[in-house]
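job 3f2a | input accepted
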Amino acid sequence: MSTSATASVSTHILDTSAGRPAEGVAVHLSARSGRAADWRALGGSATDADGRCKDLPALPEGTTHVRLDFAVEPYFEKKQADAQQDAPANRDSGAGVFFPEVAITFAVVPGEHYHVPLLLNPFGYSVYRGS
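job 3f2a | predicted structure (131 res):
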């Protein structure tokens, strides 16, 4: 465990429907200090070609809870549009994405790093505390 007065957060997204990293997904980070406190938006980033956000904002001292908001609908819309352009005969039924956004909230303690991967497909997702 680190001696830092704050926790740190990182994330990445794997599109399990394609078996690839999900590039270009907007991720927003919010924090609060206590269950009753208001959420404070800290900023955001977007996933790179490896599906990682390498520049999420630092957490303020006293943070006890963190929320990651993933805007996944634009990613799947672009993916569907690209697939239709490449192979118009294989067009999807247009059902879209079931979860247009994913919000993950978790508790943190000072000095620890939290890596929270998102495993994603158009009709479901899973998260876990990674390393």
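job 3f2a | The radius of gyration is 16 Å.
job 3f2a | closed
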